[in-house]
Design the sequence.
């Protein structure tokens, strides 16, 4: 995958279960735990010139379980543990809609809206963009946007047989090492 035409221009990254340990309705910054190798993987991709985007569904806000401030506090803690701030990412999308509130034009994954906006705005080649996550909704987001879909292991989702268009990786670190 390391030929120059295959080197990713952009990684669209899920947060929970991809960058940090998945916690049900995470809203407490003290519960943030980086997954192994994530910091090195993000640094390696960024140094190679790859654009990085954080794309996260946070339906706990839409369901009234916690406020958007709690999501931002969790993100701040994640950035602190990574030794960076939010500007390290080229963009951040926090979709606060609950599944029953999501519409065709919402940002909630598997909607491709945010990915398509960034691809157009930044003149990215969809064939060199990757949606990386731990849920099938992440993979479908990539598929719906016309980009490559990479799934990491998930202890929270029974996937069954994956579609042929999904690339599986054992970790973000392993995927990035294979690309750059």
Sequence:
């Amino acid at each position: 995958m390391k030929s120059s035409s295959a080197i990713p221009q952009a990684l669209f990254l899920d947060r929970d279960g991809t960058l940090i340990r998945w916690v049900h309705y995470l809203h407490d910054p003290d519960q943030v735990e980086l997954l192994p190798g994530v910091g090195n993987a993000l640094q390696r991709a960024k140094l190679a010139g790859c654009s990085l985007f954080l794309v996260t569904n946070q339906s706990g806000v839409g369901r009234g379980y916690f406020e958007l401030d709690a999501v931002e506090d969790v993100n701040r803690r994640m950035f602190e543990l990574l030794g960076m701030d939010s500007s390290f990412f080229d963009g951040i999308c926090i979709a606060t809609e609950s599944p029953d509130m999501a519409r065709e034009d919402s940002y909630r994954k598997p909607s491709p809206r945010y990915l398509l906006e960034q691809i157009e705005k930044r003149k990215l080649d969809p064939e060199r963009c990757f949606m990386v996550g731990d849920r099938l909704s992440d993979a479908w987001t990539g598929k719906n946007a016309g980009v490559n879909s990479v799934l990491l292991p998930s202890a929270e989702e029974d996937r069954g047989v994956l579609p042929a268009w999904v690339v599986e990786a054992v970790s973000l670190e392993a995927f990035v090492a294979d690309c750059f």
Summary: The first strand starts at residue 10 and ends at 13.
